[in-house]
Design a protein that fits this description.
The chain folds into 2 domains: 166 residues, D-Maltodextrin-Binding Protein, domain 2, CATH 3.40.190.150; 98 residues, D-Maltodextrin-Binding Protein, domain 2. Strand 6, helix 6 and strand 7 form a beta-alpha-beta unit. It is built from 11 helices and 11 strands. The protein is 45% helix and 20% strand. By secondary structure, it is an alpha/beta fold.
Length: 321
């Protein structure tokens, strides 16, 4: 009799606890979500993050607030997000740098410490100079760099950033040396170029389009295999005989061990935003290639990229020294 009474009490307790748990699980998201951006305002990472946030919050029904935490090629933001509880209320923008910072020695963080949600775009790097610069072709720019090693100053979006990495690839492939000047984002490096403080910048194709269209900047080369849809008359490095170029990309992630039920709401929301006409228009305007990878595809891709950078970055850094 006592055993039956004990079982009855346990069953009653389950009835009381069960609905509460179910309601808690189904409540996500019930408050605002913070989206941590690893770059300064104004660059392509910031644009992608804020634009996607505005789209996914419509589907999720809660505000998605972008917060900028630039520094150390994104390592500060990545470390911050991966230290948060995996509740789904702190997410991060996942640029290519998530696969680079460990090889750079900035932080022991990478795709392995993240719950990767999706990838949404890729973007080619371009080399830009002021419209009044003496170099009208990529080869003319390289000849000037060869003539005076270290004499040309090239700005980038931060030491260890993908645009800095592409400048190092250019030095390796073309046999030149330049002086590197890092900023905390592409907006700062492009402003420096416009102000006449540096000779050239490597930035995203879309980051430069406004000033190129306005006649203030000139694109000398696209650091990729194909040409950019934004600059159809500008040759790619591969066309010119220099087989280098590492595109940037954008995705989203949460801390490791993000609950499956949370990811199951977030990834479809990002996919819906990706499939919108608004996102297609932004990609066309900013020179981004819309590419969607779900969590498993993104994880495989990111791990491959991390292996590539783990091999290449030490070699390039040795060359820079």
């Amino acid at each position: 009799m006592e055993l039956l009474r004990s079982k009855a009490l346990c069953f009653a307790a389950l009835l009381l606890v069960g609905p509460g748990c179910s309601q808690q699980e189904s409540a996500y998201p019930s408050r605002e979500i913070r989206l941590i951006v690893q770059a300064s305002p104004g660059g392509i990472s910031d644009t992608v993050s804020r634009f996607m946030a505005s789209l996914v919050e419509q589907d999720l029904g809660v505000p998605v607030i972008a917060e900028n935490k630039p520094g150390a090629s994104g390592a500060l933001a990545f470390s911050y997000v991966t230290r948060q509880a995996p509740t789904g209320y702190v997410l991060g923008h996942a640029p290519v740098e998530i696969t680079m910072v460990r090889a750079l020695g900035y932080a022991d963080v990478g795709p392995q410490q993240m719950s990767l949600l999706c990838l949404v775009s890729k973007i080619a790097p371009v080399l830009v100079v002021r419209a009044d610069a003496p170099w009208r072709t990529f080869e003319a720019f390289l000849e000037a760099a060869r003539a005076e090693p270290g004499g040309l100053i090239m700005a980038n979006s931060g030491t260890g950033s993908i645009w800095h990495f592409n400048t190092l690839l250019m030095e390796q492939a073309a046999g030149v040396r330049v002086t590197h000047l890092p900023y905390s984002g592409s907006s700062g490096s492009l402003a420096s170029l416009l102000g006449g403080h540096v000779d050239a910048v490597v930035a995203g194709a879309g980051e430069a389009i406004g000033n190129v269209s306005a006649g203030r900047l000139r694109v000398l080369a696209v650091f990729d295999k194909p040409r950019s849809q934004l600059y159809p008359n500008v040759p790619s490095t591969h066309e010119l005989g220099y087989a280098f170029g590492a595109p940037a990309w954008s995705g989203f992630y949460g801390p490791a061990a993000l609950p499956g039920a949370v990811a199951a709401k977030l990834t479809p929301a990002f996919r819906k935003a990706f499939e919108s006409a608004e996102w297609s228009k932004l990609c066309e305007e900013r020179g981004m290639e819309p590419v969607f990878m779900d969590s498993s595809q993104f994880e495989s891709f990111a791990l491959e990229q991390a292996a590539f950078f783990a091999e290449e970055i030490p070699k390039l850094l040795r060359m820079e020294r």
